[in-house]
Amino acid sequence: MQHSFRKLLRKNLLYMTFPMVLILSGLLLMLFQISRLEMFQSTPMTDTMEAGSYFDSDRRNVTISLSNLKSAGFARTDGEKKKAEYFYRVENGKMQLFVLSEATAKRYRANQMENYVLTVRIERDEVTARYIEQEYETSLGLTADEMQGFCSEYVLDETAYPRVRIWMLRTATIALSMILGILMLYVILAMIFPALNFEAWVLKRFGHIGRYIRKIDREMEKKLRYHQDNVTVTENYLVVSYISKIDVVRIDDIKYLSKHVEKRKRGLRPVHVYRLTASNADDLYFEADFFEEEIINDVIYFMRGEPILEYEEQILKEKEEEENEIAENMHEEEEASEPYDPEQ
């Protein structure tokens, strides 16, 4: 099988970006589904007399053109600060209430809101409607029976419109779409031009990234000495690849090469881990761990022409000590299990 540094870069790129694309796509789909909820949808409305039917059909966010409004003389306050004002309009013998923010109310009084399209939310507020009916009973010169139901219980409230939530949802959707688009564009360009792959930036310390990608490619094709699992040794380079990164060491830069062994727990049983260390007096320091001694010995052999075996005796000694300890424990258990004879 032909080995290629370009293919290795592309493979790792897909391994790294595919989960990110899935997560971003899932989040984007979730935001699209949320945007379809009633809270985030707005519907045009031309006749305010249809406020009740819009409310009952869960179309409560509406856009409407405001004209011919009159101040109702009532306001909402937060402590001593006025937050919103009530306006009304009479159509077909029915009073329709509007709640406008203080800023919108000032613009309306300055004749800056004529035919202005405003987004409001339809709220059902029968208590306020009946209260305003009572206040207007005398001023309008109507009897109590005539005033009954004169004021619609559905209020078109600008302050209740979820403007901030909708803005946040749209902003998040646009941001995620841009991130996903940029990521997909990066993947396409990095697949075409491997030098753009962020894992290839490890070659920057050698010089021009693209040139060294081609060099290592040629070495893997024509001067390959050893390949096993994620380790490749060519005539001039050691390449150790992981999903999240690729380490490249130029063999001529190595002045000190050593092998160390340590015992770690892998699950419930201890295992030996073999560490390869390469360094020089300047800025090179590289480490790679292997779980098989045969692999690290082969790597060292093909890098320098001879294996490093100085720790084999230590490993054999540790194994022998473990076997002796197990044998002693078994012997003690056998003695403890023998029945006690008082005549002995």
Can you tell me about this structure?
This protein is an alpha+beta fold and 344 residues long. The chain has helices spanning 5-35, 51-56, 102-109, 126-139, 144-147, 163-192, 209-222, 293-304, 312-337, and strands at residues 43-44, 61-66, 70-78, 81-91, 94-101, 116-124, 154-157, 224-228, 231-234, 237-241, 246-250, 256-266, 269-279, 285-290. A hairpin with a 2-residue loop joins strand 9 (231-234) and strand 10 (237-241). Helix 1 (5-35) packs antiparallel against helix 6 (163-192). The longest helix is centred in the first third of the chain and has 31 residues, at 5-35. It is elongated, with a radius of gyration of 39 Å. The protein starts with a helix and ends in a 7-residue tail after the last helix.
The parts where pLDDT drops under 50 for at least 5 residues are none
> What is the typical, i.e. mean, pLDDT?
84
Strand order of the largest sheet: 1-2-6-7-5-4-3
Name the overall outline: elongated
Number of strands: 14
Order of helices and strands: HEHEEEEHEHHEHHEEEEEEEHH
